[in-house]
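Help wanted!
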Amino acid sequence: MRILLLLISLLWLLAPTCSWSYDLLIVQSQRSPAYDEVLRGFHSVAHFSARTIILNDYNEVDLLRIAREENPIAIVTLGDKALAASRNVRNTPVIALMALSFRPGHTGHPAMTGVEIQAPPDRYLSLFNSIKATRAGVLCGSAGSSAYIRQAKKEAPRYDIELIKRVVKSSRDVLGQLESLSGAVDVIWMLPDAVTSSGEAADAHFLFSAKNKVPVMTLSSAYLASGAAFALDIDRLDIGRQGGEMALALINGAAISEIPAQTPRKTTIRSNPSILRRFGIAPDAASLGNIQ
Amino acid sequence: MTVTDRHKRFKAGFSSRLFLIFTFFTGIISIIFVFIFITGEINSYKERTTEKAHLLASLLAGRATLPLFSENIPELERLAREILATPAVTRITITNHENRRLLDIASPDFTSKQPVIESSVQVLTTSSTPSAETALLGGTFRPTGSAAPLGSVVVAIDTSDRGEAIRSALFKTAGIAFFFWLAVIAACYPILQRVTRSFNTLIGGLDTMMGGNFSTKIIIDSDDEAGRAAQAINRLAAALEERDAENRNLQAELVNAMKLEVQQERKQIMAKLIQTNRMTSLGLLISSIAHNINTPNGAIKLAAQHVAASWKDALPILEQVTEEEGDFTLGGLPFGVAKIEIKGATESILNNANRVQRVIHDLRTYNVGERSELSPGVSVNQAVEEALTIIRAHGRQGEISITPTFATNLPLITGNQYQLEQVFVNLLLNALQSMTVGKGAVTIQTEFSPETSEVRITVTDQGEGIAPENREQLFEAFFSTKIERGGSGLGLYISNFIIGEHKGRITIEPHHLCGTIATVHLPVTL
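Answered by r_m:
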C-alpha cells in the first residue's frame, strides 16, 4: 500500500513536467490552409517537439507567462498578429514567418530572425526588364518598406530602371499619390506595408492601372483577378522549410545572432493574360525564365 | 301605349332588368378597377421613386468608394453632379465614416419645402480586392472588420410631380374604363335581346295559358333552357287540357250522383217529417180524446158518488124494511146479497173512473211535455213506474214480459221526473221494438252506486241487437233502423239530450248473449 501511494505521488509530481516539455512554441495568428502549408514544410525538416497556439481561438493569450513557465527553445510565429504578440517575449528567440511587418533590422526584438514575405528586389527589377519598363512607381508607407525600397533603388540602375517613390502617411493618401504618378511611370510596383496593405489601397492601385494603362506588379496571385498584371508568388512550403532549418539550427545550439533573416528562396511569376493583352504587353520569356 | 306604360313595361321586362343589372355592375366594376389601379399607381410611384433614389445612391456609392476613402472632395463633387443631372434628383449629400458632411449639393430650383423621397446607402469597404494579408493567405480569408463603412450617400428625388402624375393616370384610366363600360353596354343590349328571345316567347305563351287557354302551344325556336322549358310547358298544358276534360265529366257525374242522393235523402227526411207530424197529430188527438173522455168520465164519477151517497142513505132504511118485513129481492138478488154487490159496484165505478182520469191525465202530461225545469227530490223508481204504466197502457207489449227491479235504498235526485219518464219510455219502447218476434223478456233495474254517487237505470232486452256499423250513429237525430215500422229517429237523440241536461250519460252496449243493454247514469246531485 505504501508503495502504491508512493507511485501515485511521484506521478502527480512528474506529470506536469512530462506534459509541457517541448522545444518550440508555434504561435499562429489564425487557422488557415496557407499556414498549414507552411507548417507542413516546417515539420518536413525535422520531427520537432512543439506546442501550437492559435491566437484567434482565444480572447487573450499571455505568451510572456507561457514562455517563462514552459521555457521553449524558440517561438515560431505565423502571421503579423502572432509576430506582434511575440515581440514582448524578449528572452526567447523568435522565428517570424509569413508576416508582412517583419523586416530584418526593424524587428524591435533582440532575438528575432525569420523569412521575409517579399522576394528580393532584383527579381522584381528583372521582371520590369522583361516587360521593357524603365520607370517604376512605388508607394512607401512604413519604415520597413523604406529600407526595402532603398535597397531596390540601389539595385535599380543596374537594371536601367528609374524607381519613383511616393511617400504616403495614411491610406487615404494612396489615391492622391498614385494620381501624381500619372504619366510618369511604366509600371506600378505594389509593395504591401502597414499603410498600403488595405483592400481599398489595392483598389486604388488597380483603378490607377486601368485609367492610365499601367500594369501593376504585386506579391500575390490573389490580386490577378482584381486587376494586377503580374504577381510574384512565394512558395509557402519552402518558406516553412526555411523556418524549419532555422529552428533546427537553434535546437542544435546555434545562437540566434548566427542565423540571419532570409528572403523567400522560391517564387513563381503569374500574370493576367487579359490585362497584358489589353495593355499590349508581351513579356520576354527568357527573362521570365531567369526570374523563376 | 303611353310612354309611362312603355317605361313600366321596360322596367318589368326580364331582359331589361338583366340589362340594367349588368350595366350597373359593369359600371361598379369599372369604378373599382379605376380605384384599384390608381391606388396601385400611387404605391407604384412611391416604390419607383424610392427604387430610383436607392439605385442612384447605390451607383454613386459604388463610384465614390475610393474618392470617399481618400476624401477627395473635388472628385466626389464631380461624381455627385453627374448624378444630380439625372431628372428629378434634387439633392445629394455625402458623409464620411465619422458622419461628417463632406458634400451637400442641390439642384438650382431646389427648395426646402419641396416634397422629396430620400434614399441613403452606406459606402462600404467590402471590395472584391483582398488586403495584402488576405492575399498572402491565398485570398480565402476575409477579416471580419473589412465591412466597416467609409461613409454614406443620400440621394433625394423630387416628388412634387406626383399629384400631376396621379391625376394624369386617373384621367387616362377613368377614360378607358368609361369607354369600356360604354362598349360593354352597347354590346350587351342586343346580346341580351338575342339571348332572352326564347325566354320572351315562353313568357308570351305562359301569359296566354294563364288566361285559361291550354290549347295554345308555345313556339319552340331554340334548344336552350327556355326552349326545353317551353317543351315541358306544352306537354303540361296538353296534360292539363286532358285532365280538365276528365274533370268536367267527373263533375257532371258527381252532380248527377248528388242530385240522386239529395232526392233519396229528401225522401227520408220527408218520411221523418211525416212521422213527426203524425206524432204531433197524435198528441192533438190524445188531447182531444182526453177532453172527450174526461167530460163523461167526470159525469160518471159524479153519478157514482151520488149513487154511493144515496145508497149509503138508503141502506139503513132498507135494512129496517128487511127487519120489519122480511128479506126481499133487489135487481134479482136477495137484499142481503144485493146490498154488498151494489156497494162493490159503486166503488168499482168510482175506482175505474179515477183510473180513467189518471190515465188521461198521464197521457196529457206526456203529450204536452211541459215542465222542463229540474227540481230536487225526484224519485227515479217512481219515474220508472210511471213509464211502465204508460208502456202497459200503450198496449204493444204483447207476449213480452217486463220485469222491473227497484232498489230500496235509491236516493232522490235533482231532475225532471216527466223528462226522465220520457227517457225510460223511449228505452223500453226500443227494447220492445227490438224483439221482432213479439216474445221475450225485458228487464228494467234501478240501483245506486256509492262509489260514483250516481243512480243507474239499466234496460236489458233479448232483441236482435245493434249492428256494429250503426253504433256510431245511435244518438244522431233522425237516425232509425225502424223508419218503416214507425220509428222517428228522435227517441235516443232526445233521450241523450235530456240525460245530458241532467249531467248524466247513456251507454248502449250489446249483451254478451243476445240483445242490448242500455244504461242511464244519473248523478244524485248536479
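OP: Thanks! One thing I noticed: The first strand of chain B starts at residue 89 and ends at 96.
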